[in-house]
Amino acid sequence: MKNQNKKYIANFFLGIAQKSEQDKISKMPEVDHLLKQQWASSTPNKLDKAATKRLLHQTKNKITSSRKIRNINFIIKIAASLVLFFALGTSFYYLSPTKKSNIEIVSLSSPAGLRTKVLLPDSSTVILAGNSQISYPSNFDEKTRNVKIVGEAFFDVQKNPKKPFIVAVEDITISVLGTSFNILAYPEEESIETSLVTGKILVGFPNNPKSHGVTLSPGERSTYSKINKTVSISEFEINRTISWINEKLIFENENIFSICKKLERWYGIKINVHNSSKDKYTLTVQDNTLTEVLDLLAKVGPIQYEINNSKVDIYHK
Question: Is the pLDDT of residue 60 over 50?
Fold first, then answer.
C-alpha cells in the first residue's frame, strides 16, 4: 500500500495524476511525510530566488483564482508541503533519476499552467513551458552534452567548443557550442520551430541522410514540417517569441483556435472551441486570470464562454 501511495505522489509531481489518484492523495494522513520522503530521495536542481517567488505565487493563484482545476482542499494540503520545498530554494517538479546502461538519466516535467527553470550539469539553463519535459544525463560525457525535449523550452547554453551541446527533438537535432534559443515542439503540433536568439546553431535531420541540415543566425527561425518533412527559414520577432519566459504571452493577429491552444498550456485547463469565427485578435496576457482573459476576448470579438468544472467551452455569438 505504501508503494502505491508513493506512486500517486510521484504522479502528482509529474502533473499526470488522475482524478481518482488526486482524491486518494487528499485523504492520505501521511501525505506530508510521503512528500518529504520523495524530496529526500531526490537531488533536484536549485531555482533562483525570483523563480522560487514566481512559483509560490503561481501555487497561491492555483488556490485562489478561477484557474483552479483540482479539488480546493486537495490543493491546499499539497501546497502546504510544497512551501517547505520552495523555502529550501529547490525546483518544483522533479522525477528521480532512473538508471539505464549504468548512466543516470534525469527526467523533469513542467505541468500545464507552470513554467520551470532547470540547471543542467554544465551550468546551462533551460526554462520549460507548461506541458513540457526534458531528459538528460546527470553528468555529461567527455565528448558531447546530449538532452531530449518535448514541448517548448528556452535554452541558454554555456560555451564549450570541446563539447557540443545537442538537443534531440523528434526527427531533428539542434547542435550548438554556446548560444540561446527557443524550441517549440509539442507532439500535437504539425511542425517544430527552432528560433535562435544569440550565437549560431545547426539544425540537423538524422532520419534524412540526404539533408545536411541548416545553420541559423540570430533572429532566424527554422520551421520543420512533420507532414512533408521539409524545412523553411524565416525571420521572427525575438521579444514576442520568448515573452513567455518572462511570464507574458503576446498574441498578434491570431485566431481564437491558436490563442486557446496556448491558453490551455498557460493555465492548465482544457478549452474547447465550438463553431467560432475566423476573427483575428491582438492582446497581451500578463498577471491575468483566465476569466479576465476570456472576458476581454468576449468584449472585443463575437464569442461567449462557459466554465464547467475543469474545462472551458467557447461559442460563436
Answer: no
Percent of the residues in the chain that have a pLDDT greater than 90, as a whole number: 50
> If DSSP codes are grouped into helix, strand and coil, which group holds residue 151?
strand
Alpha carbon distances (Å) from 210 to 205, 216, 229? 9, 19, 12
CA–CA dist 87, 49 (Å, integer): 10
Helix, coil or strand: residue 314: strand
Q: Whole-structure pTM over 0.70, yes or no?
A: no
What architecture is domain 95-239? Sandwich (2.60)
- CA 276 to chain centroid: 27
Is the CATH code 3.55.50.30 the one for domain 248-316? yes
Tell which phi-psi region holds residue 219, choosing left (phi > 0), alpha (psi between -120 and 50) or beta.
Answer: left
Sign, CA torsion 59/64/65/70: positive
Q: What is the domain partition of the chain in residue ranges?
A: 2-87, 95-239, 248-316
